[in-house]
């Protein structure tokens, strides 16, 4: 029993949409179902009582509620969802306005107008909801006070009409305030989660991607390589004799060295290449669409730039070098093997004097 209900409520929901959009889709489904059932039941009753005009209106509303729900499910686009919501709000407003005009059963029709502010605010959002509600309030005021003598408008006392509008304005204000706070809290939560997401993937010292961020990039690149068969290369850079820099200048200046080196690496890399802080004084380069020879060429330029550009640490010029190990990722060499081989090549570069770029394919034994 619960299965089909759940299926109905979730129809149109998509994991790719934002949470807010999915919540709206579910509420539209629920609201359309409730609106459709109530108007259908009331329409049937009006029909049995011989009130054919009222029953026609109620049946039409029932059909519009059903159509708006189908629209958002069948045509799964943002435009269709906006149309679906507009149709629902318009139908609700028209129906309740008609109840104010006719008075409904024993002049109780106006009671339904209190449904309008919360529903409109939730579906249309703060600004559009407020505009729609102002237009609706004006329409209600005209209906209540503009046709005092007209036969087609139900007869309400002056006190009832003014209190109806005052209380409606109060509910509108509260609904608007609630929607405004809800939207603000949602925006704040979204901002915070984006910040957390960013922090989880970035290194706070250099602002580069951290190991986790780099690993996600590697997975993406590997999947892309399997799709389009274009290889990419991974390089690991390790600052030479960094321990002695820390020992002589202190840890804080050591951090500044890392920051300046990361800037040099970044500015010397192509826009599409990825640079990450792989660990303490180790950096990773991901050269997409690049074979090992291409990566070696790019790294030679980066190495030479660092070698020739003095860093300015606390007013002193110091020269720092780095060693690099590089390996191409191919269908035969997956990412973790490539990282292991790039590490081996880096070790080889360190052993052979440092300030070198060493390719994994040139290692004596891999
Ligand atoms: N200031 C600073 N130092 C770090 C950071 N992460 C790692 N280190 C230091 O980097 C140094 C790395 O030293 P080693 O691994 O011995 O290597 P090295 O001195 O660079 O020598 P080679 O790699 O052989 O050229 C260690 O002293 C670490 O404490 C960091 O975030 N900031």
TrEMBL record:
GO molecular function, one term: diguanylate cyclase activity
The protein's required cofactors: Mg(2+)
Keywords, ordered alphabetically: Membrane, Transmembrane, Transmembrane helix
E.C. number(s) listed in UniProt: 2.7.7.65
InterPro entries: Diguanylate_Cyclase, GGDEF_dom, MASE6, Nucleotide_cyclase, Rev_trsase/Diguanyl_cyclase
Residue stretches making up the GGDEF domain: 230-362
Known catalytic reactions: 2 GTP = 3',3'-c-di-GMP + 2 diphosphate
Descriptive protein name: diguanylate cyclase
Matches recorded under Pfam families: GGDEF, MASE6
Transmembrane segments: 25-46, 52-71, 83-101, 121-146, 158-178
Cross-referenced NCBIfam families: GGDEF (TIGR00254)
């Amino acid at each position: 029993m619960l299965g089909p209900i759940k299926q109905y409520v979730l129809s149109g929901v998509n994991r790719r949409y934002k949470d807010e959009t999915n919540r709206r889709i579910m509420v539209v489904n629920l609201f359309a179902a409730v609106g459709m059932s109530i108007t259908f039941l009331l329409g049937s009753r009006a029909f049995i009582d011989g009130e054919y005009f009222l029953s026609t209106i109620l049946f039409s509303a029932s059909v519009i509620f059903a159509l708006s729900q189908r629209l958002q499910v069948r045509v799964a686009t943002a435009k269709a969802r906006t149309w679906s919501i507009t149709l629902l709000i318009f139908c609700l407003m028209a129906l309740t306005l008609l109840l104010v005009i006719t008075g409904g059963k024993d002049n109780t029709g106006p009671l339904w107008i209190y449904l309008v502010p919360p529903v409109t605010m939730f579906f249309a959002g703060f600004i559009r909801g407020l505009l729609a509600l102002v237009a609706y309030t004006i329409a209600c005021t005209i209906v209540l006070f503009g046709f005092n003598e007209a036969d087609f408008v139900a007869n309400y006392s002056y006190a009832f009409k003014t209190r109806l509008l005052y209380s409606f304005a109060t509910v509108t204000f509260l609904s608007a305030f609630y929607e405004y706070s809800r939207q603000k809290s949602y925006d704040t939560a979204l901002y915070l989660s984006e910040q957390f997401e960013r922090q989880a993937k970035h290194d706070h010292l250099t602002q580069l991607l951290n190991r986790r961020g780099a690993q996600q990039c590697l997975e993406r690149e590997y999947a892309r390589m399997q799709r389009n068969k274009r290889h990419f290369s991974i390089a690991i850079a390790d600052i030479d004799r960094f321990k002695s820099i820390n020992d002589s200048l202190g840890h804080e200046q050591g951090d500044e060295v890392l920051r300046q080196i990361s800037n040099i690496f970044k500015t010397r890399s192509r826009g599409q290449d990825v640079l990450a802080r792989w660990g303490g004084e180790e950096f990773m380069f991901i050269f997409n669409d690049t074979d090992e020879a291409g990566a070696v060429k790019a790294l030679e330029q980066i190495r030479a730039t660092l070698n020739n550009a003095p860093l300015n640490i606390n007013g002193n010029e110091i020269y720092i070098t780095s060693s690099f190990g590089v390996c191409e990722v191919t269908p035969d060499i997956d990412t973790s093997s490539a990282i292991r081989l790039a590490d081996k090549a880096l070790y080889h570069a360190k052993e052979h004097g440092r300030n070198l770029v060493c390719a994994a394919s040139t290692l004596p034994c891999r």
